[in-house]
Amino acid sequence: MFPPATCHRLAERGHDAVRVRDRGVDARPDPEVAAVAVAEGRAIATENVKDFAGGRGLVLVCVLESRLPSRGMDVRLAAMLDGWATANPEPYVGLHWP
After folding, report:
1. Which residues contact 1 (CB under 8 A, 6 or more apart)?
2. pLDDT tens column, 2-23
């Protein structure tokens, strides 16, 4: 699980980022989480590629936590996602590896 502060860091950079918990679907199956993201026009940043990869209409940003430093992960992850979002203002549906 990514640090909760990542959404705050993204908001500081002007993004409308929310946690799954903020949407009330943190204890729901992955297909339900994906359906909420699609309905709200959101991308999902996850390490759980296998379970989300089949989501129809889903923009999936795949991030491996093991490639991020444990200290300051929220800052590094927010910077990575900000860079990806800036480079992909209209992302295609499917998998993205920033």
Report:
1. none
2. 999 999 999 999 999 999 999 9
How buried is 33 (Cβ within 10 angstroms: 0-12 exposed, 13-18 middle, 19+ buried)?
A: buried
Q: Look at the chain and report how many structural domains it folds into.
A: 1
- Residues near 4 by Cβ (< 8 Å), separated by ≥ 6? 19, 21, 74
Give the residue numbers spanning the domain of 70: 5-96
- The answer to whether the CB of 33 falls within 8 A of the CB of 50 is no
Are 25 and 32 in contact by the 8 Å Cβ rule? The answer is yes
CB < 8 Å & 24+ apart, contacts of 85-91: 85/15, 91/43, 91/59
Q: Which residue has the tokens 């499917």?
A: 94
The answer to whether 1 and 73 are in contact (CB under 8 A) is: no
Q: How far apart are CA 13 and CA 55, in angstroms?
A: 28
Q: What is the pLDDT of residues 52-61, one digit of tens each?
A: 888 889 999 9
N-to-C CA span, the chain: 17
